[in-house]
UniProtKB/TrEMBL annotation:
The gene is murA. Pathway: Cell wall biogenesis; peptidoglycan biosynthesis. GO terms for biological process: cell division; cell wall organization; peptidoglycan biosynthetic process; regulation of cell shape; UDP-N-acetylgalactosamine biosynthetic process. This is UDP-N-acetylglucosamine 1-carboxyvinyltransferase. The active site is at C118. The modification 2-(S-cysteinyl)pyruvic acid O-phosphothioketal is found at C118. Its main location: cytoplasm. Residues 7-408 form the Enolpyruvate transferase domain.
Amino acid sequence: MVEKIIVRGGGQLNGTVKVEGAKNAVLPVIAASIIASEGKSVLHEVPELADVTTINQVISHMNAEVTTNGNTVTVDATQPLKTEAPFEYVRKMRASVLVLGPLLARYGHAKVALPGGCAIGSRPIDQHLKGFEAMGAQVTVGDGYVEANTDGRLKGAKIYLDFPSVGATENLIMAAALAEGRTVLENAAKEPEIIDLANYLNKMGARIVGAGTETIKIDGVEKLRGTEHTIIPDRVEAGTFMVAAAITGGNILLERAEAEHLRAVISKLEEMGVTIQEEGEGLRVIGPKYLKSTDIKTMPHPGFPTDMQSQMMALMLRAKGSSVITETVFENRFMHVEEFRRMNANLRIEGRSVIVDGPSDLQGAEVAATDLRAGASLVLAGLVADGYTRVTELRHIDRGYVNFTEKLAKLGANIERVKEEQELPQESLSTS
Ligand SMILES: CC(=O)N[C@H]1[C@@H](OP(=O)(O)OP(=O)(O)OC[C@H]2O[C@@H](n3ccc(=O)[nH]c3=O)[C@H](O)[C@@H]2O)O[C@H](CO)[C@@H](O)[C@@H]1O
Ligand SMILES: C=C(OP(=O)(O)O)C(=O)O
């Protein structure tokens, strides 16, 4: 049996959706919760995602006590922890490497399986390791593991990142939180999720200033204490539903969507003719009758987010004229292009760019989610394709979207998630 999302194109999406807590904020926050040698952390607005289950399994494996009650997760890491994260977890989710910084800071030792690449690129962690070494750790890589050790506490250091890596910035802030002296992180990532992590750590007793700017200063403290924290809203989930409104010419109110985190996305959607208004604690998004073409280049925050690239490509397919979308953050984040082509999309890859000649007359087809955002984008394209689109490989979508099918159905989409018999390939039916 294979699980599929089946969507039939046609019709506008209208109604209200509440944006979940951010996947990319909650994963580092749960990883950071294991630094606390005293007190429990109580985390609110935790989305019920497969990735959250994975990070909870990683820290439970280390002996942290994790209790989930709806969207509230309590972590008690006061008992002695194991300092290893095995491959079985890291292979499911690269963000498992975020336990390196907290373990090294608290225990002077960490051993984590190397994450390796994935469908969107090779994704090395050299910038994380360079930072740990600058703080005095000995780092070795072998047998598929990275191991870091330090005698006594890490030492504060001046670290310049070659690229504003989100994960490296998070791992190094966490490591520096318990280091001796001051760490200055230059060319740091400025994503809202970095600010959320720093706010959480500061509530735990850390001394971090400058999160959200390119220079972050961390004065190490001796210990941190569990605290209460509410996870920020997921700007990528919000952006995905904004595209759902835009592509169907619908009208959706996104409760808890944070305009400040979505400036680049809002600006590009407005260029394409979409109306966006702040309303109460959220954003109202109204799709136009005709979409206009535009060009987009992905960049680190506050630039256009790579995690919204494929959704915007789906939208460009329906815009009149030529649009160009350039990916500068990941080396290989265009796997969805071939899948869109199965749906009769007119687009081509040129180096790091995709040229979209719209509007395409999209036709329903059987397509595979090649990664999490690609999966969501195929569903978005299916909302306006002629006939039925069947999307497979749903485990990717489940990593980052809570009840995606149900939420779209509630907005009026003709969509369901089903289990279907796997069709045998032709050759296995042959009797010769
Ligand atoms: C769990 C999480 O928060 N994931 C997000 C995080 O991923 P992640 O933290 O992995 O992304 P990074 O910002 O680290 O990676 C960006 C680029 O830098 C490269 N790089 C990174 C680290 C390093 O040591 N060396 C190196 O070369 C990567 O291969 C990639 O090409 O930020 C990405 C960029 O906004 C988002 O797409 C992901 O959704
Ligand atoms: C690429 C993403 O996540 P991850 O870094 O967890 O693979 C994403 O959220 O789009």
